[in-house]
Amino acid sequence: MRAQALLEHYGVDFEYHDIDADDSDKARAIELSGRPNIPVLAFSDGSVLTEPSNPLLNAKLTELGLI
Questions:
Q1: How confident is the prediction along the chain (67 residues), in pLDDT tens digits per residue?
Q2: Which of 13, 35, 49, 57 is paired with 5 by a 20 to 30 Å CA distance?
């Protein structure tokens, strides 16, 4: 929820998938990250962050010009 709150704070568009409600979403998250941890954030440049800290997520959003 921390990552979602940060994205919402900055007004960054994102697509939320509830892995508890959909096994295919859960499988995709594990496929992307290699781990069962959430959140998994996939970016337009092909990179993936799993459970990023706020500073790491801020840096990524800045790098992509989203904030």
A1: 799 999 999 999 999 999 999 999 999 999 999 988 889 999 999 999 999 999 999 999 999 999 9
A2: 35
